[in-house]
Amino acid sequence: MNGADLNFAIGRALGSEVSGSERLAGRDISGATRLELADGRKIVAKSGPLVSVEADMLRAMAETGAPVPGVLANEGDWLAMDYVAPAGCADKWSALASTLRTLHQPTDHPYGWDADYAFGPVSIENDRSETWSAFWAERRLLSHCPHIDTGLASRLEHLCEGIDSLLPEKPLAALLHGDLWGGNIVWTRDTAFLIDPASYYGDREVDLAMLTLFDHPPESFFDTLGLDTGWRERQPLYRLWPWLVHLRLFGDSYRVPVERELSALGY
């Protein structure tokens, strides 16, 4: 759908014509546009084959009470959401901890999600599983083996043979953001809003592992989350997946962190 057709469809759905637009840089791989409507509202629009999946993720996150942009309309390959304006936050890590405690409430959902997702050309397999260690091995690690060199693939396969000794079989399942890094957090005056999810149900420690790829929360942030014993030892295993995604998306410069995490785990 071209820009004019998208603006027309959104204007019709929201009852006000689009009067201006601005491309938002750095939000996610697919990109997003901030639109101003004739009635003065500012919204965010995205288009693509997976925006309906994202809309379902945002709705599920909103149901937990976590602060996320509200879904205004979703028709076919486009999505319109509330625009959340960033503002200075006096204690951003405390605000984020509060958001994650709300999002990560225990559930009885099986691990995974009802639809697959993707980061650009890299697919995210989400078939449900009753066993967490099997889900992580099959959906998050071994799924990369056909797309990377045989040396790394062999190390991953060896790791997954012993994964039951590294991960709990059935940790409490929480709704995850799934791509939690600083660029997907909008801090307002006293709240941390989460945007651009790649959600599924799993161990909440995964979100923390992704957060520490590029960001450096203070120890007080982790202390307030009441994490399970051994969570630090599991972080390299959970960081492996996003590093593998980066390796496939952006090339061999990300081989070093993949190898670093494997070595930290003894593989």
Based on the structure given, which CATH architecture of the largest domain is correct? Alpha-Beta Complex
Shape, per Cα inertia axes: globular
Strand order of the largest sheet: 1-2-3-5-4
The helix content is 25-40%
For this structure, the CATH topology of the largest domain is Aminoglycoside 3'-phosphotransferase, Chain: A, domain 2
**What CATH first level of the largest domain would be assigned?**
Alpha Beta
Report the β-strand fraction as a percent range.
Answer: 15-25%
Terminus-to-terminus distance: 46 Å
**What is the string of SSEs from the N terminus onward?**
HEEEHEEHEEHHEEEEHHHH
3D structure, described in words:
The protein has 267 residues and is α+β, with helices and mostly antiparallel strands. It has 2 domains: 3-82, Phosphorylase Kinase, domain 1; 92-264, Aminoglycoside phosphotransferase (APH), C-terminal lobe (Aminoglycoside 3'-phosphotransferase, Chain: A, domain 2), CATH 3.90.1200. 38% of the residues lie in helices and 18% in strands. The protein contains 9 helices and 11 strands. It has a 5-stranded antiparallel β-sheet with strand order 1-2-3-5-4, sandwiched between helices. A two-stranded antiparallel sheet has the order 6-7. Strands 8-11 form a two-stranded antiparallel sheet. A hairpin with a 4-residue loop joins β9 (185-187) and β10. α8 runs antiparallel to α9. The longest helix has 20 residues, at 231-250. It is globular, with a radius of gyration of 19 Å. The relative contact order is 0.13. The mean pLDDT is 95.
